[in-house]
Design brief:
This protein has 240 residues and is α+β, with helices and mostly antiparallel strands. Helix content is 15%, strand content 31%.
Length: 240
């Protein structure tokens, strides 16, 4: 049980007995904005088709995801999330200002019953990734993340329930660790109020776009069948 009593950086005592003691944590320059998105509910409409759809199965505490084929729940001919079946919509939005692409898919295994979660921690591209059971909640969560210049957010309808700002490249914070820990606790509590029982749904979310880990992943350019290492469409029969 190794516990350092003193920590030095560049000759300065910066921590003692587990507490930060340095005089200042201010950076020389403020972080530049790192989220360039314009998102509205119509942007989240998936492609129309017939037959079955591909669905990502999230597996708790695993990077590997399942590749399943489901009969979709349709509204006016468009596949939609269905929380009664543990089917959520998933979106990956290119946020670096390159081309603004948006990939749309569906995921099961997160257990969301309402609302949405979103964040800019999405290995390895770190685009904005959002998951939810309705488009309004997904847009609200995504916009909250963009307004923070990156981070994590929980939303329900038009209300933002909790946030964790990560303004340094959308991945890191300059706030004291105690503040970050408190914000993270509130964030996870808000996510659990949406129904998910996953230990850390944001950790699970962050790997749903990692297109080098089997079996099915979503990127800003669409779904990737990692086993075949090829892009695939949402609809199965549409490709035959």
């Amino acid at each position: 049980d190794f516990r350092p009593s003193h920590v030095f950086a560049s000759g300065e005592l910066v921590a003692r007995d587990g507490r930060y003691t340095a005089s200042s944590s201010a950076s020389a320059r403020p972080p530049r904005p790192s989220v360039a998105i314009r998102l509205a509910e119509p942007d989240l409409e998936p492609e129309r088709g017939t037959g079955s759809i591909r669905v990502i199965r999230a597996v708790e505490n695993q990077l590997v995801t399942g590749h399943e084929v489901w009969t979709p729940t349709l509204r006016d001919g468009i596949p939609v999330a269905d929380p009664e079946r543990d089917l959520s919509k998933l979106a990956v939005v290119e946020r670096h200002g390159a081309h603004g692409g948006i990939g749309i898919g569906f995921v099961t295994g997160l257990g969301l019953e309402s609302g949405a979660i979103a964040g800019t921690v999405a290995h390895d591209h770190h685009n904005l990734i959002a998951c939810g059971v309705d488009d309004e909640s997904m847009v609200t969560a995504a916009r909250a993340v963009a307004d923070m210049s990156g981070g994590l957010a929980v939303a329900e309808g038009s209300r933002v329930l909790a946030t964790l700002p990560l303004p340094v490249a959308g991945l890191m914070s300059e706030s004291p660790i105690e503040q970050i820990a408190a914000d993270l606790s509130r964030l996870l509590a808000a996510a659990r109020r949406l129904g998910t029982a996953v230990h850390d749904p944001f950790m699970a979310l962050s790997f749903l776009g990692l297109e080098v880990i089997p079996s099915l992943k979503l990127t800003d350019r669409g779904l990737i069948d990692v086993d075949a290492f090829t892009p695939v469409g949402l609809w199965v029969r549409a490709e035959s």
